[in-house]
Write the structure tokens for this entry.
Amino acid sequence: MASKPSIHRDQRLHRKDPLLQYRWKRTQCLKQNLMQGTKDKVIVITGASSGIGEATAVMLAERGAKVVLGARGLERLEGLARRIAGAGGEVAYAQTDVRKREDVTSLVNLACERYGKLDVLMNNAGIGPISPLDDLRVEDWDNMIDINIKGVLYGIAAALPVFRKQGFGHFVNTASTAGITVHPNMAVYAGTKFAVRAISEGLRQEAGDKLRVTIISPGFVRTDFTESMTSPEMKAQIRDSMDKMAISPDAIARAIVFAIEQPADVDVGEIIVRPTAQG
Ligand SMILES: NC(=O)c1ccc[n+]([C@@H]2O[C@H](COP(=O)([O-])OP(=O)(O)OC[C@H]3O[C@@H](n4cnc5c(N)ncnc54)[C@H](OP(=O)(O)O)[C@@H]3O)[C@@H](O)[C@H]2O)c1
């Protein structure tokens, strides 16, 4: 005969001790409350195929959210969707280039059509091909502006009318500690992330009492972020810093889950999560 689920075994073991029984019940209750905050929420994530987006998608799906994933690389998206579905999660995905407004709109529409609503849009897709301004890597500047700023704006344009109509909704926009302090070689990247923070704060002020806006500002995080860097010197330098101090993308995902699971009248405005070793 198949053995009963371990949760019941734990309960039986604790039944004889009132204190243990109380603690067990309280833990179950806390777990349940946390699940309530994310369970069945429909969450669109751009830049979901790796790093911070991927970690957040997995964590949210584990907590019962329905995740809708977008990125350019279809193969990685498919692999991630298989993993999430294989673990019992609810997931949809679509190839999405946030430089194209129609792609971002389609991703949001996919979520609404498949699941009937949209609770959260995480504008996370971003690149960081940093370099000294003297290098005149103008194509990189254009790409950072198109992906990091205009991509976020296209996300707002796609989701804001949906949120207004529903009377609820939550934007989570990925900025950076580079959006708080400027360092040499990071002028354009920092400029895009300052812009994300400014746009998000403006959005928060205009949002009214029904919508929520959260800025997540990570420091060094262990992801594929350096892949977008076209300057070999910068790539080597940032990789070296990442090897020395970067934290897991799960650390950022946990902060995002915290913001999402708050009650509807609690707006977590900005969270900065950086390695303790980062100056
Ligand atoms: N890692 C860090 O240290 C760090 C620190 C602060 C802030 N951030 C921010 O965190 C966010 C996520 O970066 P990450 O560190 O997780 O890097 P990552 O591992 O390189 O992930 C970036 C994601 O964005 C997607 N992406 C890139 N260009 C896109 C486009 N045009 N349209 C749609 N998706 C696109 C990538 O997939 P495809 O290439 O397949 O499209 C990938 O899924 C970015 O906004 C980044 O600026 C990262």
Q: What stands out?
A: The first strand starts at residue 42 and ends at 46.
